[in-house]
């Protein structure tokens, strides 16, 4: 074969690209899918993240917890405080909360809650006639998340 000879398509030389498998018919579907995927990914990512959000670890919904109290748990006081004060980590439904004081005779004495001044604070005046001895303040609160929490705070009044 000379330099200037023209060969027919079926006379391709070995290694010639024309000897390779015939190309598949041209279609634009793969390109369209890639283009749609490139456009849809930024739109779908937030939706997928939102859908997966319930599967991610998250803090458990906690009940109302006492952050501080007066008297403090286990306190030994020379005289009774004028009132008991409990501060919680969340808002409290004061209308559905209560406190009861148990004295040395272990008899329950319901305490009237003071009007709300702070949504996370529960207060009640103590009787002025408390004598020496061990006391247990039993409290029950309803947090605004709907969970009821109960607890006891023990304290002692020392004799004069």
Explain what you see.
- The structure is a single chain.
- The chain is an alpha+beta fold and 160 residues long.
- Helix content is 15%, strand content 34%.
- The chain is built from one helix and eight strands.
- It has one helix spanning 29-52, and strands at residues 66-70, 75-77, 83-88, 92-102, 108-111, 121-125, 133-143, 148-157.
- It has a five-stranded mixed β-sheet, with no helix packed on it. A three-stranded antiparallel β-sheet has the order 1-3-6, with no helix packed on it.
- It starts with 28 loop residues before the first helix and ends with a strand.
Key features?
160 residues; three-stranded antiparallel beta sheet; elongated
Could you give the topology of this structure?
Blueprint: H1 29-52, E1 66-70, E2 75-77, E3 83-88, E4 92-102, E5 108-111, E6 121-125, E7 133-143, E8 148-157
Parallel strand pairs: 2-8
Antiparallel strand pairs: 1-3, 3-6, 4-5, 4-7, 7-8
